[in-house]
Structure formats: structure tokens, C-alpha cells
Design goal:
single chain, alpha/beta, about 15% strand, 8 strands, 8-stranded parallel β-barrel, TIM Barrel, about 45% helix, 11 helices
Length: about 240
């Protein structure tokens, strides 16, 4: 088991999600609950995963007015989720409100600011009026989040080394991980597990290469072996 691996439970209901979590219980301690599963099952799925002893990355990408996001942070805290995402593009006031709400709680998830989605490239950013490279936009958003009390970021592996240098103590969570030979699907900015870890990632989020594998347990084991080999390779 490697505590740096987070398996994304991207399912439409609790039954297959919990079945996979239990199938991987000897290999993985962390599971991600995203919008698809959360909207179907609500807080109950987080409570159940925590009851079974798993750590939960609740990837809701909160993005609303400051007061609403602060309230959402307080509501989510009751689930026992360990990590919770907010969109850095929500702006300074929203980020500050989220951080302030979390700091006031006795038990709060660690907040992570989502920078630029791994499905976005320069063309996609330009289409929504952002005329910067993904790398430049990631750093801009991370700076804003850090200045407003959030010291954890979700970013692609292409930017993680820059963020590690700029924010040495930050928690860096990297999605868009694809083992060698895997299909990229709708992801634009991807990397192998080894490359992401070498760049400075703390956690790797992996979904379809495991959940859509013929043998998810075997796929997970192969990824864990790659992660361990990367850790054993001298820098």
C-alpha cells in the first residue's frame, strides 16, 4: 500500500464504488468522491467510506459567492472528508471565506485550490478569455490561493515542479495520471505516475486506468509498483 495513491470512485451510485473500494482495501487507503457520485449519494457515501476506514478526497470544486462557499465548507466538514477542493478561479474573497470557515472548525478537511483543470490546454483557456499558458495561469491562481490561506493545490504534473519550488510545504495533488500505454481520453495535460512523483507530487489521483481495467486490483498493483520504482530511483 502506498498512501500517495488516491483512486477516483467515478461511479453513478454507491454500490459499485463501495465494491471497488473494498476490493482494493489491501492496496489503497484513499478514495476520491467526485461530483457524479456525490450528487447521486450525498454525504452518505462519504460517511460510509470513512466508516469503513478509508480516507476521502471530496472533489466538489466549490465555486460560488464567498458566503455560499463558506457555508458549504462548514456543511462538508461534518462528513469527515479529509481533503476538499475549491476552485481557485473563484477569486480572493471566495478563497479567503473558505479558508476562514475551515480554520474556525474543530475538525475540518484540508482545503485544496484547483488551479487549471487537466482537461484544459492553451486553446481551451483562450476560448474562455484567458490568454495565458496553462503554466502561467496555474502559478497565478496558486499565488492567489496561498495569499488567502490555502496551502494545497490540485494541478497537472506539467506544473507541479514549479509549484513545489514556489511552495515547498504545499500539499500537491495531481490528477491526469496515466500509466504508460493507457488511453488519455479527455485529459490534455497528463503524466505517468513516475514522472509526477519525480516532479514533486504528494498524491496521485487515478481513475479510469483502474476503474475501467479488466482487473482493477491488478491494475492498481502495477501502478503501485511503478510508484515504488520511481521512489527508489536516485534523483
Amino acid at each position: 500500500m502506498d498512501p500517495r495513491l488516491i483512486v477516483a470512485l467515478d461511479y453513478p451510485s454507491a454500490a459499485p464504488a463501495l465494491a471497488l473500494a473494498d476490493r482494493l482495501k489491501d492496496s489503497c487507503a484513499w478514495f476520491k468522491v467526485g461530483l457524479e457520485l456525490y450528487l447521486a449519494e450525498g454525504n452518505a457515501i462519504v460517511h460510509e467510506l470513512r466508516h469503513r476506514g478509508y480516507s476521502v478526497f471530496l472533489d466538489l470544486k466549490l465555486h460560488d459567492i464567498p458566503n455560499t462557499v463558506a457555508g458549504a465548507v462548514r456543511s462538508v466538514a461534518a462528513t469527515g472528508a479529509n481533503l476538499l477542493t475549491v476552485h481557485a478561479s473563484g477569486g480572493p474573497a471566495m478563497l479567503h471565506a473558505a479558508a476562514e470557515a475551515a480554520a474556525a472548525l474543530t475538525h475540518s478537511p484540508q482545503l485544496l485550490a484547483v488551479t487549471v483543470l487537466t482537461s484544459m490546454d492553451e486553446e481551451q483557456l483562450a476560448a474562455v478569455g484567458i490568454h495565458h499558458s496553462p503554466a502561467s495561469q496555474v502559478l497565478r491562481l496558486a499565488e492567489t490561493a496561498s495569499a488567502n490561506g490555502i496551502n494545497g493545490f490540485v494541478t497537472s504534473a506539467e506544473e507541479v515542479s514549479t509549484l513545489r519550488r514556489r511552495f515547498p510545504s504545499a500539499t500537491l495533488v495531481v490528477p491526469g495520471i496515466r500509466p504508460a500505454g493507457s488511453a488519455t481520453a479527455d485529459q490534455k495535460r497528463i503524466a505517468t505516475p513516475a514522472a509526477a512523483l519525480a516532479a514533486g507530487a504528494d498524491y496521485l489521483v487515478i481513475g479510469r486506468p483502474i476503474t475501467q481495467a479488466k482487473d482493477p486490483a491488478a491494475a492498481t498493483q502495477a501502478i503501485l509498483e511503478e510508484m515504488q520504482q520511481a521512489s527508489a530511483t536516485p534523483a
